[in-house]
Amino acid sequence: MATIKLPAVLVGGSATSEVDVAGDTVRELFENHADEHGSELKDSVIEGGEIKEFINVYVDGTPIDDLDADVPDGAQVRVIPAASGGR
């Protein structure tokens, strides 16, 4: 199992939370999370079979662009929406 750190902005909460999810790849993690908790996170991260342009996914601190990237048992997966703004 891996732990996904969920930012509140992507899951409609008021604070970042963590959830343990089974899966050998990034894709499997998001699919299994959707099966257990609904598709809100998956829909926020994946579009057209790829990670959305302004979403960053890290496995144990390494940026991941490929949904088929391996996720080792016990890994920490972070989902971080890109930040922008200001003038």
From TrEMBL:
Signal peptide: none
InterPro entries (UniProt xref): Beta-grasp_dom_sf (IPR012675), Mopterin_synth/thiamin_S_b (IPR016155), Sulfur_Carrier/Prot_Modifier (IPR052045), ThiS/MoaD-like (IPR003749)
Record SUPFAM superfamilies: MoaD/ThiS (SSF54285)
Source domain of life: Archaea
Name of the featured protein: MoaD/ThiS family protein
